[in-house]
Amino acid sequence: MWWNQTTRQLPLLGALCLAACTGADPNQDTSGSGGTGTAGSGGQVDVGGSPAADPFEAQADTSEGLVNVSANLEELLEKGTLAGACDAYWAGDPSDRKAMLLCGKSMFFYESYGTVGVPTILPEMLLTDFEDIVGPGFSKLGMIQDPYSEKKLPLGLAKGAPFGNLESVAFTCASCHFGQLPDGRYAVGAANHNYEYGKHNLMMAVFPLIALLGGEANHDPEAIKVIQPLIDKVNNTPGLKLSLTTKLLPLASAGGQTPQFPKEAEHYYATWKSGTMDFLIEPLPLNDTVHTVSKISALWGVPSDAEAEKAGMIHAMLGFTGGTKSLTRFAQEFVTFGGGDGTPWTVEKVRPLVEYIESLRAPQNPNAPNVTLAKQGEALFAEQGCITCHSGPRGSGLDLYSYEEIGTDSAMKYWLDPTLSGEPCCNAPAPPDEKPTHQLKSPRLVGFWAMKRFLHNGSVDSVEALLCKNGPRGTITEPALGDGGHTYGCDLDDSSKDALIAYLLSH
Ligand code: HEC
Ligand code: HEC
Q1: Which residues' Cβ are closer than 6 Å to ligand 1?
Q2: Helices (H), 239-286
Q3: Tens-digit pLDDT profile for residues 172-183
Q4: Which residue pairs, CB below 8 angstroms and at least 24 apart, start in 231-234?
Q5: Computed from CA positions of residues 346, 349, 355, 357, in that sequence, does the dihedral angle turn out positive or negative?
Q6: For atom 3 of ligand 1, which residue has the closest CA?
Q7: For 341-382, how does the pLDDT look when each residue is reduced to its tens digit (9 = 90+)?
Q8: DSSP label at 176?
């Protein structure tokens, strides 16, 4: 049937097992932007008698003038020049840092690393015949149309490895890590918490089946609800079903297999909040049998290996389980976990992407909170002990923590290792030096003013709610979705909470 061919069976979803990148990288890249900040936001915090460095000290600008935040999308896309940026860099002077960053930016938006995605006819069909429902460039699902795409694709879907004789599109970093800020500007590195990842996948993979073959009753009712407007349109538009059949015919002869969404998985896809997802779940072949939910992270202020070392971190601690040692490793495993061939993506070849991401900074809050209030918040951040777990670069922690200690939803403890054996499960293509941590990191605390989801599973919808300003949390107890725990600061009075919030929203 469809595109689930044995040797390349990670379709659309397959590009996604990112958090799996746990473990040490023997071949890591130690260059990067480092932590040589200037112009700190002031006030050193005194912890236990010894002055700690300000975790929010401003980082040096290493962007080489690239436009990474702008209200003007064309400007942000360097006026269409990204397409040839890597060819130019690899053919040119290797010490030209600006050329390298342009290549990295081009990779961020347009490189799918040979991962296999979905046959292009599927998104094309949705974008042409159902634009009223999905929006131009899937904008109604939280994506952003690429002004330079002839096929009117969104940023974040780019040409993937060919699927038999069919063209495919696969994910690039931009689908999830590029977005629009509350003030309307676009920003690279933003966590795209508007992206309806689960619903988008159901529309691409489950809808066509039902449209052509029927059988609604065999599917999860919530999943049907998601695709119902599409089904209704097919039923109410004379000739549409026939034209869809014709358009999708090439899929039948492509030799792949329809991805199998068990009802339970369909239900998860239908009900995840925007900006959240599970990567190790059917129809992905890599299924760790635990339902875990992660929110998309912002990629602002990611520490370079050198900075992490200098700060006293065990390594860059990427991913919510904190096991990924470096950005280089993270990028490489995006490829291998996504069904691509990792061989060409050496440290050297991913360096432009890595250095580009390291140059991204959280954009300034246009409604900067009151400075005096934020100063009070800074003092509280120390007094209340927040700083003990958030003292590293941009407020990230230097250690990993147990779910028991933090008290937040613990489904993630079993991530990639349902039996807590200490080894990655399910034939994950993880390097031997990668082990599940069963722990949790304390994330960087920058760019919150532009974020919609908090805690690793995205269960909390504002900083106010995190500090229990709207009342106690912990009412959602469904495994993986729980919103309890991390109650630090919840017992403060409202004005102290406001001060802490002002501090958190000021960087
Ligand atoms: C379809 C969505 C999606 C795509 C595509 C995607 N990511 Fe992510 N990314 C996520 C989610 C969700 C998380 C949080 C998971 C976790 O850290 O456990 C994440 C986390 C990360 C982190 C960890 C950040 C931190 O501070 O711990 C890095 C680094 C990252 N992604 C880089 C990339 C790069 C580089 C690409 C492109 C090669 C990419 N991602 C593509 C969804 C995506
Ligand atoms: C014992 C260590 C510890 C202490 C103390 C602590 N935190 Fe955290 N913090 C964490 C960990 C671990 C997480 C990740 C929890 C999760 O995602 O489930 C976190 C998450 C957060 C987040 C959400 C980040 C995100 O991206 O969703 C914020 C905001 C935060 N902490 C602020 C604070 C403040 C403010 C205080 C003090 C009132 C504080 N923390 C005290 C360890 C700690």
Answers
A1: 16, 18-19, 171, 173, 175-177, 197, 277, 294, 296-297, 299, 302, 318-320, 327, 330-331, 334
A2: 240-252, 263-271
A3: 999 999 999 999
A4: 231/207, 233/129, 233/130, 233/132, 233/133
A5: negative
A6: 176
A7: 899 999 999 999 999 999 999 999 999 999 999 999 999 999
A8: H
